[in-house]
C-alpha cells in the first residue's frame, strides 16, 4: 500500500491497488522501473514489458511479484500480441501505462534521418495507439480502465533540431490521450498524459553527453535534475481512480523548467 502525504499537517492518504493489474511498457529501465516498483508497492500486480533487456526485466518482475513480457514495439502487430499475452497472464487489467520510448538524435542532413524518424514514430506513437486500441474492448467490457501515457515537455515547448522526431511523436501522444479521454469517458475509460522534463535515465544520457549536463539542467527551478522516482508516484495516483475527473489532463513533472 503506497502512502502519500496530502498535507504535512494532516493524515496520510493511502492508495491500495491490491485488486489491480497493470501493464507498464518499457519497464526494464529508467522511468519504467520506478513506475513498476511504485505500482507494486501499492499492491498492484505488474506486467513488466521489455524490448531486449531480458535479465533486468525478469529480475524486476521477480522482485515485485510481477511477470516479464517481451515485445518489439517497433514491429507492427507486436503491441497487440503484448496486450493479449498480458491479459492471458494477468486476467483483468485495470490500467495501461505507455512508458516505452526512444530518442534518437538525427541531424537534418544525416543519412539516417528518415529511418530514425519512422522508428521514433513507430515506438513512441504508433505502438501506444495500437496498445490502446487492443485494450479498449477489454476496458469497455469490464466497465472502465485507466490509461497513462508518458510524453515529454518537448511535446509543448519543442526540442533541438536533432530531436524533431522525438518532439513530434510526443506531441502526437498528447493529442492521442486527449482524444481517448474525450471519446471513451462515458464508457468508464480515463486517460492522462505525464510530461517529464529532463530525467536522469540512460535514454537521456545520450543528450546529456552531447550537450552537457549544465545545458540539461540550466533552466530548472529546483536544485537537482528530476529522477525516475520523482515521476512514479504521480502515475500510481492517476491509475488509482482518485483523479478520474482530470481525464485528458497533462501533468507536468519537469522541475519548473516549462509550465504551460
Structural overview:
This protein is α/β, with parallel strands linked by helices. It has a single domain (15-250), classed as Rossmann fold (3-Layer(aba) Sandwich). It contains nine helices and nine strands. The strands form two sheets. It has a seven-stranded parallel beta sheet with strand order 5-4-3-6-7-8-9, with helices on both faces. A two-stranded antiparallel sheet has the order 1-2. The longest helix is centred in the middle third of the chain and has 30 residues, at 113-142.
Report the C-alpha radius of gyration, rounded: 18 Å
Give the CA-CA distance, first to last residue: 32 Å
* Portion in helices: 40-55%
The domain tally reads: 1
In CATH, what is the class? Alpha Beta
CATH architecture: 3-Layer(aba) Sandwich
| Classification by helices and strands | alpha/beta
Low-confidence stretches: none
Count of helical regions = 9
Main beta sheet: strand number and arrangement?
Answer: 7 strands, parallel
Give the strand order, joined by hyphens, for the main sheet: 5-4-3-6-7-8-9
Q: How would you spell out the order of helices and strands?
A: EEEHEHEHEHEHHEHHHE
Q: Which word captures the global form?
A: globular
Strand content: 15-25%
Question: What is the count of β-strands?
Answer: 9
CATH fold descriptor = Rossmann fold
Question: Overall mean pLDDT score?
Answer: 92
Keywords: Oxidoreductase
Pfam families: adh_short_C2 (PF13561)
Family: Belongs to the short-chain dehydrogenases/reductases (SDR) family.
Protein name: NAD(P)-dependent dehydrogenase (Short-subunit alcohol dehydrogenase family)
Amino acid at each position: 500500500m503506497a502512502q502519500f502525504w496530502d498535507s504535512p499537517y494532516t493524515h496520510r492518504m493511502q492508495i491500495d491497488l491490491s485488486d489491480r493489474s497493470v501493464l507498464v511498457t518499457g519497464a526494464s529501465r529508467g522511468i519504467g522501473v520506478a513506475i513498476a516498483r511504485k505500482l507494486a508497492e501499492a499492491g498492484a500486480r505488474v506486467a513488466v514489458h521489455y524490448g531486449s533487456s531480458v535479465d533486468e526485466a525478469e529480475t524486476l518482475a521477480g522482485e515485485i511479484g510481477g511477470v516479464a513480457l517481451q515485445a518489439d514495439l517497433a514491429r507492427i502487430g507486436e503491441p497487440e500480441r503484448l496486450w493479449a499475452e498480458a491479459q492471458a497472464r494477468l486476467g483483468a487489467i485495470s490500467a495501461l501505462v505507455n512508458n516505452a520510448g526512444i530518442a534518437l538524435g538525427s541531424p537534418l542532413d544525416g543519412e539516417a534521418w528518415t529511418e530514425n524518424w519512422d522508428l521514433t514514430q513507430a515506438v513512441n506513437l504508433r505502438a501506444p495507439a495500437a496498445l490502446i486500441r487492443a485494450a479498449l474492448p477489454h476496458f469497455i467490457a469490464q466497465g472502465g480502465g485507466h490509461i497513462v501515457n508518458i510524453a515529454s515537455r518537448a511535446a509543448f515547448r519543442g526540442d533541438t533540431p536533432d530531436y524533431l522526431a522525438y518532439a513530434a511523436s510526443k506531441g502526437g501522444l498528447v493529442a492521442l490521450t486527449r482524444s481517448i479521454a474525450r471519446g471513451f469517458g462515458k464508457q468508464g475509460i480515463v486517460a492522462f498524459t505525464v510530461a517529464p522534463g529532463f530525467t536522469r535515465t540512460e535514454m537521456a544520457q545520450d543528450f546529456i553527453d552531447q550537450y552537457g549536463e549544465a545545458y540539461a539542467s540550466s533552466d530548472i527551478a529546483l536544485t537537482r535534475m528530476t529522477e525516475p522516482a520523482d515521476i512514479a508516484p504521480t502515475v500510481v495516483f492517476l491509475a488509482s481512480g482518485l483523479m478520474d475527473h482530470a481525464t485528458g489532463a497533462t501533468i507536468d513533472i519537469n522541475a519548473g523548467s516549462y509550465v504551460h
